[in-house]
Amino acid sequence: MPWFDLPTPLALIQLVRMRDELRRRNLYDTEEPPLPSGGVPANIPWSIRGARAIDGRNNDLSCPEMGAVGRRFGRNVPLDRTFPDVGSLFTPSPRLVSRALMTRDAFRPATSLNLLAAAWIQCMVHDWFAHPRSTVDDGVDLPLASDDDWPDAHMRVPRTVPDPAPAGSTRPPAYANPNGHWWDASQIYGSDPAVAASLRTGIGGKLRLDEHGLLPVDPVTGIHRSGFTDNWWIGLAMLHTTFTREHNAICDELAAAYPSWDDDRLYGTAALVNAALMAKIHTVEWTPAILPHPTIGVAMRGNWDGLAGDTLQDLLPVLNDSEVLGGIVGSPHDHEGVSYSLTEEFVSVYRLHPLIPDTFVFRRLTDDSEIDTLELPDVSGPHTAEMTSRIAMTDLFYSFGRAYPGAIGLHNYPRHLQNLTRDNGEHFDLAAVDIYRDRERGVPRYNAFRRLLRKPPVASFEALTDNATWREEIRRVYGNDLETVDLMTGLFAEPLPPGFGFSETAFRVFVLMASRRLKSDRFFTDDYRPEIYTEIGLRHVRDNSMLTVLRRHYPALQPALEGVTNAFRPWTPTGR
Questions:
Q1: Across-strand partners of 233?
Q2: Which residues fall within 8 angstroms of residue 481, CB to CB, at 6 or more apart?
Q3: How far apart are CA 150 and CA 148, in angstroms?
């Protein structure tokens, strides 16, 4: 019986077994040669022991480069299965897959969520990963059919640039991550020391905000200044602003308790606490919101706090050493014998663009009346700063809390993203690029992916999807060859378990990597303690949630939050 059909206690046992098997058999290091590792140095200064490095170094004190900026993505499947799909990069055409299977016929909402959930996951992804790309001139042309309505003669997209390999290497290409691999809120603070320094006031550990409490705007680009601003839009501006404010609020708490601390000490500790709070929100709030299966909430809370609960752990600190009873946070770190990194397969399962609508309705908090209706390009790029100056942050959050994101599935990809022009002039179909990227980076196609994640392959198109129309469309696009169905197509097509917002196949990678991101990080394990975070910092993480953050910085939202138990679920309409 599938785990999701079992009673919660039995389902939890199955999930733990699944996770442990994936840990043993689905973690592969791509560094060549392996990163050097030695003993932990003596007399480590606070600047290294007590604060995250902007570039991700020194998380593992015995292997300082592990997880740092520029380190390679690992894999969740054997390396010999990750060579680029060279002979079939364009079979079938990525543009055909996009047009025939991804195009949004009509917006299908995910009514158990609000739009803040869509903004949140993009905000998180920007902390986790990016890929180095070639110039457009050195790119590749995606094939266009004779009846394609694409307005340009070509659709040229940059290539993903492999990390240089040692002479004589026979391994498949691997790719370096320009972000650090740790869960360190780099989207707020930056991954480059110069960027990070430019965001600081230099006083009291705080980050820069303008006189209205908004992110400053770069006069050259017209985009807000923050740690990572690629693909900038109003949803990201809202969250970056909020957690910049939260950082400064934490600085105030710390400065009141430790008046002798200098700017660096306040900044480093506040950044540590803020990153942990964001990781907690993702683990115990966002995840159960998008996966509202009864077992998931228990499992995610168990990942963070453990099944024993805080009170029992306070009475019996020994429980902290048990990952199941005491939670991963505060337990001893463990890399499972494989150098820590995020993985290419992790990147692939987080392709969740259907969450984004094409049209946005903005409303007034006071009476729910409509302020404006705008299309996605009108709330993106340089238009974002104009919006934050024109529409109050409370109205922006209320509008997102009242709106639905899209359901994750076929025929619900944002049309504006299928005809996207970047500020640098690149013009492409992002859905087609998503398909191409998996093939280019050697991510296995759907059935192979299932096998390698210890899940039975689907034996027929009937088993692939319970939607008869989609079934025939997929069959036509892929020439009746089930083994060639792309991963993203399969993930969007497969039937969902009860209470799931995305596929159970993708969830396998999530089960593995959600715990690994905590278990490998010393700031969530060995050094999640008062000597590093302070008692105030640990209490701040423990006592706060997305709801308390919103109420602290936007108290006027309270009427819309009445009766709301999870900030990522629909809010209460006002003015009725």
A1: 380
A2: none
A3: 6
Burial of 367 (0-12, 13-18, 19+ CB in 10 A): exposed
Residues of the domain holding 104? 14-76+87-110+117-279+341-351+413-497
Domain membership flag for residue 272:
yes
User: What confidence tens digit (pLDDT) does each residue in 190-239 have?
Assistant: 999 999 999 999 999 999 999 999 999 999 999 999 999 999 999 999 99
Q: Is 334 inside any structural domain?
A: no
Q: How far apart are CA 381 and CA 229, in angstroms?
A: 9
Q: How buried is residue 24: exposed, middle or buried, by Cβ count under 10 Å (0-12/13-18/19+)?
A: exposed
Q: What is the pLDDT of residues 526-541, one digit of tens each?
A: 999 999 999 999 999 9
Helix (H, G, I), strand (E, B) or coil at 200: strand
Judge whether 227 lies within some domain.
yes
Confidence of residue 308 (pLDDT cuts 50, 70, 90): low
Read off the tokens for 471. 């079934």
Sign of CA dihedral 456, 461, 466, 467: positive
Confidence of residue 39 (pLDDT cuts 50, 70, 90): confident
Determine how many CB atoms are found less than 10 A away from the CB of residue 530: 11
Alpha-carbon Rg for the chain in angstroms:
23
Q: Is 226 exposed, middle or buried (0-12, 13-18, 19+ CB in 10 A)?
A: buried
Sorted by sequence, the CB contacts under 8 Å of residue 37 that are 6+ apart come out as 60, 62, 63, 66
Residue 258, number of CB atoms within 10 A of its CB: 14
Give the pLDDT of residue 501. 94
**Phi and psi torsions of 249, nearest 5°:** -65, -40
pLDDT (0 to 100) of residue 309: 62
Whole-number Cα distances in Å, 472 to 125, 287, 448, 549: 33, 32, 21, 47
Chain-wide mean pLDDT for the chain?
Answer: 95
Q: Does any domain span residue 4? A: no
Query: Is 35:66 a contact under the CB 8 Å cutoff?
Result: yes
Residues 210/244, Cβ–Cβ less than 8 Å: no
pLDDT band, very low/low/confident/very high, at 1 (cuts 50, 70, 90) = confident
Query: 65: domain CATH number?
Result: 1.10.640.10
What average pLDDT does range 242-247 have in this prediction? 98
In this predicted model, what pLDDT tens digit does every residue of 466-484 receive, in sequence order?
999 999 999 999 999 999 9
Q: What letter represents residue 439's amino acid?
A: R
Q: Which residues pair with 141 in a beta bridge?
A: 156
126 in catalytic set = yes
Going by C-alpha positions, the residue among 152, 153, 158, 234 that lies closest to residue 419 is: 152
Are 287 and 296 in contact by the 8 Å Cβ rule? The answer is: yes
State the pLDDT at residue 499.
87
d(CA 443, CA 82): 6
Q: For the chain, what is the domain count?
A: 1
Residue, of 101 and 294, whose pLDDT is higher? 101
397-424 tens-digit pLDDT: 999 999 999 999 999 999 999 999 987 8
Cα angle value 25/28/31 (rounded, 5°): 165
Name the active-site residue from 126, 131, 333, 353: 126
